[in-house]
Amino acid sequence: MRIIFIGDVMGPIGQETLTTYLPKLKAKYRPQLTIVNGENIAMGKGITKSLYKTILTAGADVVTMGNHTFDKDDIYEFIDDANKLIRPANFPAQHTPGKGYVLTKVNQTTVGVINLQGRVFLDSIDDPFAKVDEILAEIQAQCDYIFLDFHAETTSEKEAMGYYVDGRVTAVVGTHTHVQTNDAKILPKGTAYLTDVGMTGPYDEILGMRKERVIERFLNHRPVRFETPLSGRGQLNGCVIDFSSTKNAARKIELIQITPDQPFLE
Amino acid sequence: MRIIFIGDVMGPIGQETLTTYLPKLKAKYRPQLTIVNGENIAMGKGITKSLYKTILTAGADVVTMGNHTFDKDDIYEFIDDANKLIRPANFPAQHTPGKGYVLTKVNQTTVGVINLQGRVFLDSIDDPFAKVDEILAEIQAQCDYIFLDFHAETTSEKEAMGYYVDGRVTAVVGTHTHVQTNDAKILPKGTAYLTDVGMTGPYDEILGMRKERVIERFLNHRPVRFETPLSGRGQLNGCVIDFSSTKNAARKIELIQITPDQPFLE
Amino acid sequence: MRIIFIGDVMGPIGQETLTTYLPKLKAKYRPQLTIVNGENIAMGKGITKSLYKTILTAGADVVTMGNHTFDKDDIYEFIDDANKLIRPANFPAQHTPGKGYVLTKVNQTTVGVINLQGRVFLDSIDDPFAKVDEILAEIQAQCDYIFLDFHAETTSEKEAMGYYVDGRVTAVVGTHTHVQTNDAKILPKGTAYLTDVGMTGPYDEILGMRKERVIERFLNHRPVRFETPLSGRGQLNGCVIDFSSTKNAARKIELIQITPDQPFLE
Amino acid sequence: MRIIFIGDVMGPIGQETLTTYLPKLKAKYRPQLTIVNGENIAMGKGITKSLYKTILTAGADVVTMGNHTFDKDDIYEFIDDANKLIRPANFPAQHTPGKGYVLTKVNQTTVGVINLQGRVFLDSIDDPFAKVDEILAEIQAQCDYIFLDFHAETTSEKEAMGYYVDGRVTAVVGTHTHVQTNDAKILPKGTAYLTDVGMTGPYDEILGMRKERVIERFLNHRPVRFETPLSGRGQLNGCVIDFSSTKNAARKIELIQITPDQPFLE
Ligand SMILES: [Fe+2]
Ligand SMILES: [Fe+2]
Ligand SMILES: [Fe+2]
Ligand SMILES: [Fe+2]
Ligand SMILES: [Fe+2]
Ligand SMILES: [Fe+2]
Ligand SMILES: [Fe+2]
Ligand SMILES: [Fe+2]
Fold first, then answer.
1. Where are the domains of chain C?
2. CB contact (8 A) between residue B207 and residue A159
3. Are A223 and D125 in contact (CB < 8 Å)?
4. Residues in chain B within 8 Å Cβ distance of A219
5. What does the DSSP assignment read for C125-141?
6. Of C71, C92, C221, which is closest to B92 when you measure between CB atoms?
7. What are phi and psi of D16, to 5 degrees?
8. Which of A42, A64, A68, A147 is flagged as catalytic?
9. What's the rounded mean pLDDT across residues A78-84?
């Protein structure tokens, strides 16, 4: 069982890069399941119904989100019906539309996909460590494999989550910092781990936002509207994971990176 | 002109890994200049005179630091005389011993090495962007090459610094998160850039601190003493950069990573 | 029904000031219930069994805590048996010794006392708003009156809690900033409210810590050990609240402040 | 020499309350100088040229600002000509329009008014402690009295500033938390001090923003637009300070508070 995971799709450039390369990547790697983080596709902040469909059409089976989930009001129109979209499961259950995990059938097997959000230097939502215990208690028995997109800022919280669920999920991959890390590995009890998968969007900007604006903000500390450009060179960051036949173990995790400096090889 | 930069050396395991592999790396890559970040060598927090000498003996020409610079009181005994050690230049000048940059002679050329610290999610010291302008105004004319260790938490502040000094320094490499990023590149105006070089220390822990303690802290939110283990498997993270003969431009930047899963190749 | 609440007792000076003035205050105001926040009594950080008894001996019926609850290891020796001590109820239940609320009999009436901690600029523990709902569902029916010590940093989170429980508890009083606010009032549905009651300890220092050390830290941003002085002029900050016979309503809330500039009047 | 200082005027309710009561307060207290913090007058965020004039017409001699200074673009149209408006002096000088202090003639005397912003839990601008030293070196000789509005979040940074400039300015009064503190005092070397003067605006909301919205944000952690109401009951918070004839010393500092529960007394 092989899955592909593509990091935060950022604005129009991210959308175009995804649309161009995801089919090629699927042809090359032949994954059984494709997961894409879509929290930044709507001009850098949030998602719309139309863009959700764009991601699915490009080849995603499941769309994960993050701290930008609710940035565009359009989300409220479709989140409860979007059965392939999940948002961080540790938003307060009682007050949050949508769901935090989904079980997907792939042939005879069931893959659980979970989305959680960290709290260090991010908003204080519910405890992701307690929440993952709760979700695993619910779905562990029904799932052959479990993939977790942990959307968090710090390397410490991400590594802590990795070791915390090691042997209890098949893979933990981080998102949110928009920069791919070079630490893909199989943890001692078999879980595939990567601190951050990186983003899919502008190659020549800062986190996908116009660099002039971001630098300006660091220089003058005044309010500035960050924006993602409409056109320019793109990059795609992702990873491919081979799940083992042993429950909650992976055989291999490899980085995917397509940039102007490192073009796609068939 | 080639330099090697090795990320945050963490405790006894980091020290041993550095001592073992730095000579081999120098034999393999034959750099003219070797820089090591030493902010975590003293049991994870700070540095001592004896460990500073250990790093130099292992092969470093310059030792850079970070937010842990002053964690061990021993630093006050030797920092003003340690002419190969620099701490973040944007600590308030009037109140801080030591220096934030150093010029090093390598044959006929002069290489400036600068250490700066970010402020996002770190202490509010002086502005690193204003400070780098100030330092460059002072040393630009005297230097053939300039290397900057930017010790910072977020990808945004690091990328902003990279683009801000692009074409004004030869390389900007980030430290502090202890996880190597996979985004080494040459920026448009020629500066080599890497968001984080990663750390040198324990392979099986969280940021080099005992994982049980870090996880415990995330679960119970009570005071716990983080500690780096005395023994265990190590890793080394670094990069090698080839400077161009053009001023403030690099030809190549490559990642170095030695781990139990990815052993050193001669 | 009248209660007195005394803010964070800070170190030896706080202890002495409490011991001196609490009996006099009780003689003057004749409260039926006395509550004291004790999170800083052990040299500024935490509490010990012996100091817990000191607070009770000085006249407290219930001791509340805050973010410093577990700073002194001694707490683990007695917290589970200390039936008059409560710590923030929103520490993760599964991982935290002690309890977050207590019901106290005062003649024929039952007063619930709850301790909660805010999350803005403090550690990300469990949601205090969800937790207060949960606790009120448990104890509302059994209580004639309910007092909440909300230990939090920002005025916004404290006011939000005040209005959130207005008409569901008798009084909400904030602690943690160590400076008394001048906004005591009865909220629209009857709950007495005060953003911060202030602290009980040194008068001539910063938050009760030696001012030279705190200023030094702001100037040089290096590690410095904060300490509370052993002797010096003290102050006491508190409030007195008259509960109404109407459930979850107060008639009056007044500030108490004893300082060298504003001595105790019989 | 007597001055009146009025805290952050918040939206239309703040504007109306100021317009109604400032003339009455001036008639009652007969101050020689009136200073008003105007950072929130434009619907809670920033100021416009027209509202700046409204504050002056209401009776202010100097308008101070804070972290919301640049929230409304209109500020760029008039800040450089607004000789009675100051913004935090520690915004980076090179990149910031406007000025951070002003000297005002009152009869034969010169009063310096300084505006600074803290950095704890606020944006990392320049060091307010270094900046106040720099400004005092410039203006000390020319001023008979100096008033400092220190716009900051925490009690620790505010008290630290108070003691740091004690004996070097005549008064330090904090703003930003929107809740008046009850710790007005004369520091050992003569400077009048108050941690926060409080705000002028809605009485029945949270910090002057609609309470339902603020509570909603604490419950669901989703993006919500905070807004200040157009009408409702108002409050005014301020203080009156009597400067001593001794340089950099005050004789008295008293709180001013006008609320529906505590009406204005002639
Ligand atoms: Fe993202
Ligand atoms: Fe994100
Ligand atoms: Fe480090
Ligand atoms: Fe660091
Ligand atoms: Fe406290
Ligand atoms: Fe506290
Ligand atoms: Fe304000
Ligand atoms: Fe403010």
1. 2-258
2. yes
3. no
4. 129
5. -S-HHHHHHHHHHHHGG
6. C221
7. -70, -40
8. A68
9. 97
Which of C124, C125, C156 to mutate to test binding with chain A, by most A CBs within 10 Å of its CB? C124
Cα dihedral D19/D25/D31/D37 (nearest 10): -50
Task: Please provide residue C86's backbone torsions phi and psi, each rounded to the nearest 5 degrees.
Answer: -125, 150
Phi, psi of C138 (to 5 degrees): -75, -45
- List the structure tokens of D150: 């220190």
Q: Which residues contact D104 (CB under 8 A, 6 or more apart)?
A: D33, D61, D62, D110, D111, D112, D113
A137 to chain C, minimum CA–CA distance in Å?
16
Residues of A in contact with D220 (CB under 8 A): 91-92, 95-96
Least Cα distance to D208 among D37, D19, D43 occurs for D43
Q: Is D77 annotated as a binding residue?
A: no
Q: B107: burial class by Cβ within 10 Å (0-12, 13-18, 19+)?
A: exposed
One-letter amino acid at D121 equals F
Extract the runs of DSSP E, i.e. beta strands, from chain D: 2-6, 33-37, 62-64, 85-86, 101-106, 109-117, 145-151, 171-175, 185-186, 192-194, 201-202, 234-243, 250-258
Please give the Cα distance from A133 to B217 (Å, whole number): 16
Distance from CA of B151 to the nearest CA of A (A): 14
Lookup result for tokens 């309890």: C99
Distance of alpha carbon C71 from alpha carbon C46, whole angstroms: 5
**pLDDT over 90 at A35, yes or no:** yes
CATH dotted code for A2-258? 3.60.21.10
The answer for A174, left when phi > 0, alpha when psi is -120 to 50, beta otherwise, is beta
Reference A170, options A144, A133, A134; nearest CA is A144
Q: In this structure, are residues A52 and A75 in contact, taking their beta carbons and an 8 Å threshold?
A: no
Would you state the pLDDT for residue A266?
A: 82
Mean pLDDT of D25-54: 98
D95 at the A interface (CB within 8 A)? yes
**Annotated active-site residue in C31, C34, C66, C68:** C68
- Residue of chain C nearest A95, judged by CA positions: C130
> Rounded CA gap, C124 and C117, in Å?
10
CA B158 distance to own-chain centroid: 13
**pLDDT the model gives residue B59:** 98
Is the separation of the CB atoms in A31 and A6 below 8 Å?
no
Confidence check: pLDDT of C266 > 90:
no
Entry pTM: 0.98
**Ion ligand 2: residues, CB < 5 A:** A 66-67, 176
Burial class (CB in 10 A: 0-12, 13-18, 19+), A24: middle
Whether the CB-CB separation of C208 and C44 falls below 8 Å is answered with: yes
**Known binder of ligand: residue A178?**
yes
Catalytic residue among B45, B68, B131, B210: B68
Q: Is C188 on the interface with D (CB under 8 A)?
A: yes
Looking at D59-147, list the stretches that DSSP marks H as alpha helix, in order from N- to C-terminal side.
75-78, 128-139
Catalytic residue list contains B68: yes
Q: Among D22, D96, D20, which residue's Cα sits nearest to residue D65?
A: D96
> Which chain B positions have a beta carbon within 8 Å of A172's beta carbon?
none
CB contact under 8 A, C177 and D154: yes
pLDDT at C41 over 90: yes
Q: Confirm or deny that C212 is annotated as ligand binding.
A: no
